[in-house]
Write a sequence for this structure.
């Protein structure tokens, strides 16, 4: 993979700690030759993200605060990253949030504010970031986001986040159309369950992950490294005609009717 992204400038949004899918992707992009800008959400994660950034093989161009619900921070993070990197070729969006009380129980009982919060952070943020990155992606580029099978199927416990992922995958298709003329590709990677901070918020996640692993065609769980490898493909010149796609990295689970 060395050299696949030589000279490419990547903004990675969604690193919280070493288990984050975004961190696995950041490492893979770094290994492939890219220079990175990373963001962190709030002071609580700043130290961890800065420490991780120091372990990259080349210094991160910038480590910037970003709460995707704050338009001023969105403006500042994208401008700051583009200035530090000298433009943007790749945006990785690995952000999702719903309140604990809006996961579990019945989806039917989701209140309006919980619905709006989950959709704003987990889906609209992709459109907001893509729009801001577009003027800096003057040589074309690639935008990759993270989805989950609950976008396509009813997954009890995932509730409002399933609705957010459906919206996210729809946004991917619409952005692919809007940004296509500039040769900016937009794709989603639909990952099987991996044990991260965000996953811990899903009630019964561990049991569900074990059951899913048994029922995949490959009879196993997936790893964040496998997600990162596919993200590298989507960010790289190996996928120049792939856009508007949702690619499953789930050991084949999505293909099953069981
Ligand atoms: P994670 O907790 O490491 O990452 C979630 C990230 O979202 C964190 O960095 C957090 O700071 C960020 N975030 C939440 N609210 C934010 C806000 N308002 N502003 C800015 N950032 C905010 O967990 P993860 O599992 O690596 O999640 C990354 C993505 O992968 C998410 O979109 C998640 O839905 C998706 N995904 C995860 C799994 C899984 O099983 N872990 C499976 C499929 C898809």
């Amino acid at each position: 993979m060395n050299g696949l992204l030589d000279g490419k400038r990547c903004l990675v949004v969604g690193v919280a700690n070493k288990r984050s899918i975004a961190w696995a992707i950041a490492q893979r992009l770094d290994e492939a030759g890219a220079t990175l800008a990373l963001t962190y959400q709030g002071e609580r994660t700043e130290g961890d993200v800065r420490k991780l950034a120091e372990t990259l093989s080349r210094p991160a161009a910038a480590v910037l605060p970003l709460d995707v619900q704050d338009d001023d921070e969105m403006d500042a993070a994208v401008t700051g990253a583009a200035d530090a990197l000298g433009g943007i070729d790749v945006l990785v969006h690995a952000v999702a949030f719903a309140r604990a009380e809006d996961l579990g129980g019945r989806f039917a009982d989701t209140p309006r504010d919980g619905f709006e919060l989950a959709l704003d952070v987990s889906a609209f943020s992709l459109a907001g970031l893509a729009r801001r990155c577009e003027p800096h992606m003057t040589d074309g580029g690639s935008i990759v986001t993270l989805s989950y099978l609950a976008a396509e199927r009813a997954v009890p416990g995932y509730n409002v986040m399933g609705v957010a992922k459906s919206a996210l995958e729809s946004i991917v298709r619409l952005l692919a159309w809007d940004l296509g003329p500039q040769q900016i590709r937009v794709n989603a990677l639909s990952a099987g369950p991996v044990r991260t901070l965000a996953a811990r918020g899903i009630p019964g996640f561990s049991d569900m992950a074990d059951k899913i692993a048994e029922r995949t065609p490959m009879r196993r769980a997936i790893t964040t490294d496998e997600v990162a490898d596919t993200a590298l493909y989507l960010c790289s010149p190996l996928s120049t005609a792939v856009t508007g796609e949702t690619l499953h990295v789930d050991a084949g689970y999505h293909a099953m009717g069981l």
